[in-house]
Amino acid sequence: MTEAFPLSPDELDDAWLAEATGKAGGSWRTEPVTGGFWSRMVRAVHDDGTSVVLKWPDRSEQARFVCGLFEFNRIELGVYRDAADRVRAPRLVHLEHSDDHGEYVLVMDDLGGQRQFDQLRGCPPDRAVAVVDALAELHARNWADPGLDDLDWLPAPTDPLIAERVPGIVAAVSEPAFANLSDVPAEITEAWPRLIEALPTLLDGFDDTRTTLAHGDVRLTNLFFDGDRVSFVDWQVARRTHGAYDLAYFCTQSLDTATRRTHEAALLERYRTALAGHGIDAPAPDALGEAYRRSALYCLVYPIIAASSAADGADPQALEVASRAFTAALDLDAPGTSVS
To answer: Which DSSP category does 115 fall into?
Structure first.
């Protein structure tokens, strides 16, 4: 069946853009946009200078398999369609998708004029504070909200979508990933088989009164800064879990090691204080620390998956992010704390 909406940038025309954006008259030009996880994006610029960003699924066989297996499209489109008032994301302009979410076109506000920071260099400390404040606001807005139960596309770490599929994928890519990485600490490689076994339950047991809507992929590539305001893009791995998940992923992989070691404790305390400022009964320091340690260990799967496709270990970003994540896990005694 042919969908009624454009399935690629090549199928865009002025008439469809006028209808989708509500901007009649004039013409549009398009230009490529980098970034996006398993997706293709372009910027459409109107004669008057206003612009929007359009996103489609990547059409490669691998992307379609992965996005279908983990329901990435369904999750991200659910965020924009059903939870736009819950998150800090670009404003939704227009959305159309097939029944199975295999095809879609997502039109959103263009954040291209806002500032981004380089993942390889790491987040400056003052901008890390802004990210932690934004996470606290996002999490507080959804903290222990029973309405999250109505979002059937939003998985928890123990749902079959994640618990039954992630360990197998990680096990399959671990050998090429470690081959591409250099100087992996022995403590990590020794604990790795036990980590894979523990993945289905590593994030289990968190108090339900502490769960929230988490972005799930809080790295600098997905963050846009407008002064102190931070917006998040790429919501394909959003999930319901402890807020410490986003915090640990960001701090252990988007801060260089020296910055994390210097500011980590203060950032965790700032997160607690910010939650309290939003009226949340924030977790005690020890409870937050334990959730943070478990989350940091779980989030090692991200650099492993990324490194598995890095050609001969030549990707500097994959190497650096993996090094940060491994060092953070050891600093936190995460293997000994969370995998036994």
So the answer is: B
For the chain, give every domain's residue range.
9-109, 125-338
Can you say whether the dihedral through the CA atoms of 232, 236, 241, 246 is positive or negative? negative
The whole-number pLDDT of residue 203 equals 87
Note whether 98 and 88 are within 8 A (CB). Answer: no
**What's the average pLDDT block by block, 10 residues per block, for the chain (340 residues)?**
80 96 94 84 96 94 89 96 96 96 96 94 97 98 94 91 90 91 90 92 76 96 95 96 96 98 98 97 93 94 85 74 95 72
171: Cβ–Cβ under 8 A, 6 or more apart, which residues?
Answer: 196
**b or e along 91-109 (b: 16 or more beta carbons within 10 Å of the residue's beta carbon)?**
eebbbebeeebebbbbbbe
Question: Hey, is 146 helix, strand or coil?
Answer: helix
Q: Which of 216, 178, 215 is nearest to 196 (CA)?
A: 178
Residue pair 271/136 in contact by the 8 Å Cβ criterion: yes
Residue 1 pLDDT: 36
Other beta carbons less than 10 A from residue 327's beta carbon? 16
What CATH class is the domain 9-109?
alpha beta
CATH number for 125-338: choose from 3.90.1200.10, 3.40.50.300, 2.30.30.100, 1.10.3720.10: 3.90.1200.10
Residue with tokens 């990210």: 131
Strand partners, 223: 232
Determine the Cα–Cα distance for residues 290 and 286; give it in Å rounded to an integer: 6
- Please tell me the distance from the alpha carbon of residue 277 to that of residue 13, in angstroms, as a whole number: 47
